Amino acid sequence: MNMNRKTLNNFEGCLLGGAVGDALGAPVEFMSLEEITDRFGPEGIGEFIPAYGKIGAITDDTQMTLFTAEGLILSRTRKAVDPSADHVSLSVYHAYLRWLSTQDRSVANEMITQHGTCSMIDGILIGFRELHATRAPGNACLSSLKSGVMGTLQHPINNSKGCGGVMRIAPVGLVEPSDRVFDTACQIAAITHGHPTGYLAAGCLAQIIGEIMSGHDLLTATLAARRTLEDRKNHNECTRALVKAQDAWKHKPVSF
């Protein structure tokens, strides 16, 4: 991909915007809707309040998003050396293992034994002490990565359909070509989330971001992702959620 200034600004805006949203939502992550509206009113939280002991703290969602980006970058480097192989999922998987070692140092030596020293020291993010801050990652992400087995679409690692697959997937929409973005995102989400809803939601978000990067507006991008989604098996639950989101947007559209 040729990187012009506009593209780099889009990348920065997407990743920074996601980090800001994660930090804004962190204090209410484990609250019910009723608890949120009781405390912050009908519009919900609208300003930063402390989470993890500080204002604007980086979350595990943001951490994993950055490691997703690193895995994608390294996969392209490896493809330049070996064009015949598809390195994307494996490179991102190894990036997630490095992320895991920032959250649980007790597993670092075991993972080096299982996956090799190079896999665990690759990249640069693991060198940033700020990313070693322990957060509250989901059980599906932790248990899947600690298992020593990489989940795939063909061999699901569990039946989880939590948000851990979709919350980290934005970088895929930024870099993958339009004919591969949906399926690549699904493959990466399936590393830790084996239920179709868990990985199809990731495919939708990645395609929506990719469509916006191509110049389409939000509604057009969402409709395109919905068409792709409806061609996949076991899409009904995810499609219903997407339709509800589209209907909500139509009643109160937001411009970007």
Polypeptide structure, described:
- With 256 residues, the protein is mainly alpha-helical.
- The protein has one domain.
- Helices cover 58% and strands 0% of the residues.
- It contains 12 helices and no strands.
- The protein has helices at 5-25, 33-40, 60-81, 88-103, 108-115, 117-121, 139-146, 170-175, 181-189, 196-213, 218-229, 236-251.
- Helix 3 runs antiparallel to helix 4 (88-103), helix 9 runs antiparallel to helix 10 (196-213) and helix 11 (218-229) packs antiparallel against helix 12 (236-251).
- The radius of gyration is 18 Å and the shape is globular.
- The model has no long low-confidence stretch (mean pLDDT 90).
The backbone outline, from C-alpha atoms, is globular
- Count of DSSP strands: 0
Percent of residues in β-strands: under 5%
What is the mean pLDDT?
90
The largest sheet is:
none
Q: What is the number of domains?
A: 1
Q: Which oligomeric form is depicted?
A: single chain
**Ends apart, CA distance between termini:** 24 Å
Give the fraction of residues assigned to helices: 55-70%
Write the layout of secondary structure elements.
Blueprint: H1 5-25, H2 33-40, H3 60-81, H4 88-103, H5 108-115, H6 117-121, H7 139-146, H8 170-175, H9 181-189, H10 196-213, H11 218-229, H12 236-251
Helix pairs in contact: 1-3, 3-4, 9-10, 10-11, 11-12
Entry keywords:
256 residues, mainly alpha, 58% helix
Could you give a short description of this structure?
This protein has one domain (58-251).
